[in-house]
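Ticket reopened. Same input as before:
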Amino acid sequence: MAGGIGSRFWPFSRNDKPKQFLDFFGTGRSLLQMTVDRFRSVVPIENVLIVTNVIYKDLVLEQIPELRENQVLCEPARRNTAPCIAYAVARIYSETDKANIIVTPSDHLILQEEAFRQSLQTGLEFIENNNVLLTLGMKPTRPETGYGYIQMEDGDTALRKVKTFTEKPNLELAKTFYESGEFLWNSGMFLWNLQTIMRAFAEHLPELAEKFAAGRDVMGKEGEEAFIQAIFPTCPNVSIDYGLMEKADNVSVLCADFGWSDLGTWGSLYDLSRKDENENVTLKCDTAFYQSKGNIVTLPKGKLAVLQGMEDYIVAENDNVLLICKKDAEQQIRQFVNDAQVRFDGQYN
Amino acid sequence: MAGGIGSRFWPFSRNDKPKQFLDFFGTGRSLLQMTVDRFRSVVPIENVLIVTNVIYKDLVLEQIPELRENQVLCEPARRNTAPCIAYAVARIYSETDKANIIVTPSDHLILQEEAFRQSLQTGLEFIENNNVLLTLGMKPTRPETGYGYIQMEDGDTALRKVKTFTEKPNLELAKTFYESGEFLWNSGMFLWNLQTIMRAFAEHLPELAEKFAAGRDVMGKEGEEAFIQAIFPTCPNVSIDYGLMEKADNVSVLCADFGWSDLGTWGSLYDLSRKDENENVTLKCDTAFYQSKGNIVTLPKGKLAVLQGMEDYIVAENDNVLLICKKDAEQQIRQFVNDAQVRFDGQYN
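Engineering reply: fixed in the latest deploy. New output:
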């Protein structure tokens, strides 16, 4: 899944090149490329499908040049994760009636790739012959309020049935979840086999399932694009969590621990980045700090930021926009983007 | 005089393009160009000499294309204002033995150009036939501690003899000066005739005068460059104020009032710029302020700065450097420049 616009990371993430396409850490690989790389030893590249907005099709093909054009599924409108996954499932079903499927966001960070691969192997073996919707749950390392949580049933195995899904909690609740040992972070990564997910769509999102079933004859063929153009904008704007996972009763979770972050906010990026002796984080650029602490600074490579008298700020520059904002005010960033769009007629989107 | 490096305005002012060559206000004209423009109706352009460091020669000719190459006098080393003026005087003397001379910095701001021209006319008429070193003194508008002051003798004329020159005062003293009505700001602009300034050099800086006198035969000719290369670096590093004006007894001041600033600091630039309802100053770029006041922001034209939770900061970006610094810490900027030079091997000078 590579269709998001990542507005919380504006101006680093921009409409024409959102978060998943950015080289976040100055390593030379974008988050999307790192995600594809991470799956290379698990899934043959010819079995990878990337669902993205049509406006990013060329960017995907440019960043992952091994892909055939028809491996990039183009959404003509933004409709959250359920229609995105339904589209990919319909495409897979046009080619086979037996498949194991891994669903993953393309803009997350995973630090321990070997542990990640082992979790995938465990999961794949399990879902191949079980009618189960499996989600990857992350062992929480702090009472994070920015993630959804999954409550497991009692037990001592890594793989357990899910009791409940919960939305982002407040801090008090997050502490309770964290200390209980029963709760995992919801990573947004799923494993299931083709028959299981098709049954689940038919049961919990029947209208959506029927829309895609109507295209059975054209999927993977010449008529696919026109068909998707016609039905996709009519799909409900609903997430796979809300529309399906929270309603199904055959959901399990695999408890995993491989240094994961959804890179959802500047704060999460700050938390997992290496800090200097004054708790300042520098990404990509050069920096010099004077009487400054707790800042996160990212400018394009080859630039220098000199900060004096700054505490707990985000300083982010990309292309033609510089943002300077208190870390604890980052929830205002969406507003900044919207205001700028109105005031400056879209030139800084 | 256009040889300064303007390090107090780093990173806006850079070694390879210092303050006088910059379009400070986004008007399309640099401070040097504005200075030349300001003199167009007073001095024929063919009588203008621009003294600058040799590394800026091409920049001067590019910005003022009407100049012949030999109107740009090149200093092979930085030696403050006395050698700079001695060089220009020697060149003028190679062409004539009678001339009225106006000396001016090229990086100041003057708002009321007509009042400025009237002061020049008054001054020129006076110095033509008087053996007097005339300085332009600015009627102070506040107890500024960033300027030197000139004390006038008692009287009620605009043109009076100078009693004393004083260095930059502390705030208490500045208040006394300001309230007394006897003190003017030292603008660094001078008027004198050729014979008077040559006599003054001979009397107060005889060593310097002799150095240039030795080149009489080559000045304005083919040998000038080699001669200047040989003697200029041996000249004392001394200002015209300290080396000559403060020692001479034939010094007068013309009290003038034409909206002048030496643009010496970010603070002075902030003070004279137009502010929004939250006392924020924006130069050249677009800005959006949230919970922010008292800032001065300058980015290249066509860029947007979004500031949140910022109070009394300088935010200045130019080329590959971004500076964010409290307004009251701007005296540290020289240190930032020096540190960056050492740490990053000159790439951000």
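Chain B has a mean pLDDT of 94. Chain B has eleven helices and 16 strands. Please confirm and we'll close it.
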